[in-house]
Amino acid sequence: MISIEKVKQAANMIKGKVIRTPLVYSPSLSRMFGGEIYLKLENLQKTGSFKIRGATYSILTNKDKIGPGGVVAASAGNHAQGVALAARQAHIQATIVMPEWASISKQEATRAYGGEVVIAGQTLGESINKAEEMAQEGKTFIHPFDDPDIIAGQGTIALEILDDLKETDMILAPIGGGGFISGIASLVKSVRPAVKVIGVQSAACPSAYESCRKGKITRVDSKQSIADGISVKQVGELNFDIIRKSVDDVVLVEEDQIAAAILLLLERKKILAEGAGAVSLAALLNGSFAVPRGSKVVLLISGGNVDSSLLGRIISQGLFKNGRIMRFRVRLDDTPGSLAKLLTLISALKANVLNIVHDRNVKDLPIYVTRVDLELETRGPAHVDEITRELNMAGYELVLR
What we know:
alpha/beta, Rossmann fold, Alpha-Beta Plaits, 14 strands, 6-stranded mixed β-sheet, 401 residues
């Protein structure tokens, strides 16, 4: 366990160097789940994630031990940016090893914060190995999660939560390597042992979940996940010891549930969360953890660093799965006014045309027939059913896509 004294020391040391992020009440989520739902918005933190906390404390508390070579870290994104900025604020050189699949936007953000980026490794583990090799050359290695200073820095979030909401009953937090939830649980169980701490992990990389289930650290294979920030194949040793003692439960969420949580936060709360930052809400959406009625529950929105291209796909696919987008194909007589007649009917049904493709040159299509592909914005599944029914009654044969 990390002592409350160490977490308080970390809070004092990083004060003014990181943002005290807001804890906001959500009426809409509270109505959905039956409790009082609060969001701790670490996506508004410097560098867009909680990682700056642990990185800042680790660098400041060990500053006298850091040589002229500076610090070195390994990360696919958030830890990289946190270490780079923390080092720049402390006037220390930072080298960041990033795996080959790290997004270009996160590489560039890390460079913008002052870090020297080295691309090495097919996995995060290989990148960590490379960083440890570089540490033998005179640099100070900062582990992304399996380190008491990193854990203590992340634990400062729990201090803020309990200070802002003393009646907290439950905290849901993402788990990757375990540094984040270890800091949260260490502080919470020292101050308010009755508060439940629930870990949430992507089913695409369930390392902490499997380790807890088997009672020992278990390395897992991973699949590609939109929650790449917590795609860690093996939980840290120190972290696992804390998790076993202080985390009440660990649950899994699927990719489509994470995407739905991202979309819900964006639409209902105007909050941009990355995949890892949305898993706590995803755990409520999939029913893997029920909120006791009237209880005060804090969802940790751990970060907001999501690539723009990925966000576009998440929104589009999420709307489609929720019945907010309808796609269908229909054949029309290739005569003047046929398309206008169809669009007039769609307009009367209060659907909005997003995309339309009108194609006469289709193999095996009769010469006096044209094919039209339509994408509509709708109010939801009931609206889709209404549109389908009315168009069928008007004589159109729809092929839903």
